[in-house]
Amino acid sequence: MDEEYDVIVLGTGLKECILSGLLSVDGLKVLHMDRNDYYGGESSSLNLIQLWKRLKGEDKPPAQLGSSREYNVDMIPKFMMANGTLVRVLIHTNVTKYLSFKAVDGSYVYNKGKIHKVPATDMEALKSPLMGLFEKRRVRKFFIYVQGYDESNPKTHEGMDLTRVTTKELIAKYGLDDNTIDFIGHALALHRDDSYLNLPALDTVKRMKLYAESMARFQGGSPYIYPLYGLGELPQAFARLSAVYGGTYMLNKPECKVEFDDEGKVVGVTSEGETARCKKVVCDPSYLPDKVRKIGKVARAMAIMSHPIPNTNDSHSVQIILPQKQLGRRSDMYVFCCSYSHNVAPRGKFIAFVTTEAETNNPKAELKPGIDLLGAVDEIFFDTYDRYEPANESSRDNCFISMSYDATTHFESTVIDVLNMYTLITGKVVDLSVDLSAASAAEE
Q1: DSSP of 22-69, one letter per residue?
Q2: Separation CA 398–CA 419 (nearest Å)
Q3: Which of 15, 25, 125, 393 is close enough to 139 for a disulfide, judged by CB 3.0 to 4.6 Å?
Q4: Can you tell me the distance from the alpha carbon of 407 to that of 329, in angstroms, rounded to the nearest whole number?
Q5: CB neighbour burial string for 225-264, b if at least 16 within 10 angstroms, e if fewer
Q6: What are phi and psi of 260, to 5 degrees?
Q7: What is the mean pLDDT of the segment spanning 325-337?
Q8: What is the dihedral of CA 315, 319, 322, 324, to 10 degrees?
Q9: Are 196 and 185 in contact (CB under 8 A)?
Q10: Which CATH superfamily groups domain 55-105+295-387?
Q11: What job does this protein perform (predicted)?
């Protein structure tokens, strides 16, 4: 391998594949390597036999679960906001032509032991059983303010500078109670803890607007979309994009050892006795374990079922957020359910995940509130994985390491990490001001 590359990307997880695609489109010479013989890394989708082997260690799943080939089970299950950053990246790169999406049926929040549809607009707030009559009126006023808010039009600000006013102060103006603040902050604005309350309100207002705009795009029951045949399609789609722009792919390359010069800067990657030279390396934490630090652990249960989750209006695909306060925890819990309607399981079968940040040494017990919502299950698996973040200085060693996937069942935090890495690598910002109507070709 005498060639020198601008960037070598190690691992074919979704984050690495998106970066590989973006960098190739930019005209950089990219080599993409993976020690596995399949795409997706940690974020791959598995058939039933692969899933069984990975989580149960036994070879044969029971016959009543149906054909192994009809399963595409995401290892990191996440939905996309229909108007969100990942959709904008897909349109910006034209990757939509390789994929088909379908709207997700429902978006729910857990409150006082029950699950309720997340109200996203002033009209939905008036109908929601989450609140009493007077609270509904207050929420409606707040939603009308948020929907009408325009950063560039001071007339819509009602005398408040949202870059200075905290979320807590903004909400106090409308007199909303703690229960309401809980579902707005965690199920609408998708904050992962309550620190947002003391931060400028602009971010929360933008997040709420994104949710409502995403809802409006499909006129459906949720703001989310999800690819047919599962998320394993996404890394492959970005890999195709990279290849179209001259990126080179090598799967099944053992070891992939990153080489450094005397100053500690990356000079290449060695596999099977050959070294490919490069200026920069992009990888997931598993390729450079001595340059990352552990920041947490994700606990999850994965269930195969023969029915939709109860109390979700028979939704074939659904997200339920269980805010931390409702469970007496420090972090939220997420329930993700998909089914044969998105071609990820045989007809009549549903796949549900319950995921959260582990806070004790007994993650199985921690997941109980989410598992209790599922009803009867055919099979259930438990799994944990550690979360890492980069501990190196990329400006010194030219190594750009992605963060591990978090427990959320939506893509917003994932894409922010990718775009931040892109800016670190290139010094540029991806222009995502695209016309979202262009995506309609890929929608069902």
Answers
A1: HHHHTT--EEEE-SSSSS-GGG-EE-HHHHHHHHT--S---GGG--GG
A2: 17
A3: 125
A4: 14
A5: bbbeebbbbbbbbbbbbbbebebbbeeebeebebeeeeee
A6: -125, 155
A7: 95
A8: 180
A9: yes
A10: Guanine Nucleotide Dissociation Inhibitor, domain 2 (3.30.519.10)
A11: Regulates the GDP/GTP exchange reaction of most RAB proteins by inhibiting the dissociation of GDP from them, and the subsequent binding of GTP.
Q: Quick check: 220 pLDDT over 50?
A: yes
Amino acid making up residue 434: V
Locus of tokens 């939709």: 308
Q: Can you point out the beta strands (E) in 42-168? A: 45-46, 73-74, 80-81, 101-103, 106-111, 114-117
In the numeric block, the tokens 């030219």 are attached to 398
Q: What CATH fold (topology level) applies to the domain 117-218?
A: Guanine Nucleotide Dissociation Inhibitor; domain 1 (1.10.405)
Whole-angstrom Cα distance, residue 381 to residue 354?
Answer: 10
Average pLDDT, the chain: 92
Check if CATH label 3.50.50.60 holds for domain 4-44+232-293+388-430.
yes
**Separation CA 103–CA 318 (nearest Å):** 10
With a cut of 70, say whether residue 381 has pLDDT above it.
yes
- Percent helix, percent strand, percent coil in the chain, to nearest 5: 40, 25, 35
Rounded alpha-carbon distances, angstroms, from residue 285 to 11, 129, 257, 292: 9, 44, 13, 6
- Has residue 444 got a pLDDT over 50? no
Tell which residue, 290, 367, 285, has the closest CA to residue 322. Answer: 367
3, burial (CB in 10 Å: exposed 0-12, middle 13-18, buried 19+): exposed
User: Furthest-apart CA pair in the chain: how many Å?
Assistant: 72
Determine the Cα angle at 335 with ends 390 and 71, to 5°: 90
SS (H, E, C) 274-343: EEEEEEEEEECHHHCHHHEEEEEEEEEEEEEECCCCCCCCCCCCEEEEECHHHHCCCCCEEEEEEEHHHC
**Model pTM score:** 0.92
d(CA 80, CA 291) in angstroms, rounded, equals 30
> Beta strand pairing status for 45-46 and 30-33?
unpaired
Is the pLDDT reported for residue 442 higher than 80?
no
Domain boundaries in the chain? 4-44+232-293+388-430, 55-105+295-387, 117-218
Query: Environment class of residue 397 by beta-carbon count within 10 Å: exposed (0-12), middle (13-18) or buried (19+)?
Result: buried
pLDDT digits over 223-238, tens only?
A: 999 999 999 889 989 9
